[in-house]
Specification:
Layout (H helix, E strand, L loop, with lengths): L12 H8 L11 H18 L2 H6 L1 H17 L9 H18 L3 H9 L2 H6 L5 H29 L8 H29 L2 H17 L12 H8 L2 H13 L6 H26 L2
Helix pairs in contact: 2-8, 4-5, 5-8, 5-9, 5-12, 6-9, 8-9, 8-13, 9-10, 9-12, 9-13, 12-13
Length: about 280
């Protein structure tokens, strides 16, 4: 005998409503975590397929620590709160490496515009702020990987750092926030100049003043008065201060550092989002 046909299960009222009307797609800030996650995955896939950038970017931090750090440790010309100068320098080089990665991130946006990718992204329901945030924090992924490389090099050179997991997590957050700000600064410049060559020139012109106008190489107290004012307005100084406090245990203003980096990243995302559409015109 053939089996009796299965009795169809009753469909709930919620199921009928879903059949008649599809669920509302996510929009606004609900897309932000998914977009940020997708951008970060893309960056990790790029590094997995081509590790050349990771190796080449490790050369400059190694040279700063090996040559500049070792030399000034012997000279003992810079007051460093009683710690070896190479230890004092290492957090500054971590921040510098992260900034150098992020400050040219706008070139990728211009390339995506030229390839037609940016226009396709802008016509999707994803808000522009989510796109910029995803790009900004994707640069943070690269910066964190770079920070790990610098920390390992510093450890091989005998730099005395903490290995507390919570403090290392705080280091990752600081690096991501700082990178997000500088990536948004780069996207903002890209939205103004609209050209890769101009962006490259401006990026090269501002990276060293940002670096030397911070506390990455020497204490703020050694600077002339006008440079101290510049350093206090420079987010890189707060990033370096937080990294020193977390990695070396030196006196730091962690609450202020995190607050400044959060505000700077938020402002950077807001301004860059407002200029993103100008790139697509």
């Amino acid at each position: 005998m053939s089996e009796a046909p299965a009795v169809p299960q009753a469909v709930s009222a919620d199921g009928i409503s879903l059949l008649l009307q599809p669920p509302t797609p996510r929009s606004g800030w609900r897309l932000l975590p998914a977009r940020v996650g997708a951008m970060c995955v893309v960056e990790l896939q790029k590094l997995r397929h081509d590790r050349t950038e990771l190796y080449t970017r490790a050369v400059q931090p190694a040279l700063w620590l090996l040559i500049f750090g070792e030399t000034f440790t012997r000279i003992k010309a810079i007051p460093t709160q009683g710690i070896p100068y190479i230890d004092y320098l290492a957090p500054g080089i971590i921040a510098q490496s992260a900034m150098f990665i992020a400050i040219f991130y706008g070139i990728q946006i211009i390339w995506e515009r030229d390839a037609g990718i940016l226009n396709k992204l802008l016509v999707t329901p994803t808000p522009r702020s989510a796109l910029v945030t995803g790009k900004a924090f994707a640069s943070g992924v690269k910066a964190v990987i770079q920070a790990v490389v610098v920390i390992l090099i510093a450890a091989l050179l005998g730099v005395s750092m903490t290995w507390n997991p919570l403090k290392l997590l705080g280091v990752a957050v600081v690096v991501v926030l700082g990178s997000a700000f500088f990536a948004c600064l780069s996207i903002t410049i890209a939205g103004i100049v609209l050209s890769r060559d101009r962006l490259m020139g401006i990026g090269q012109a501002i990276t060293m003043p940002l670096f030397f106008g911070s506390n990455a190489l020497y204490p703020v107290s050694l600077m002339p008065g006008w440079l101290q004012a510049v350093s206090r307005a420079n987010p890189l100084s707060y990033q370096v201060d937080a990294l020193r406090g977390l990695l070396l245990g030196t006196p730091a203003h962690l609450a202020l550092d995190f607050a400044v980096l959060l505000v700077a990243a938020a402002l950077g995302i807001t301004v860059a989002s407002s200029l993103l559409g100008r790139l697509a015109r």
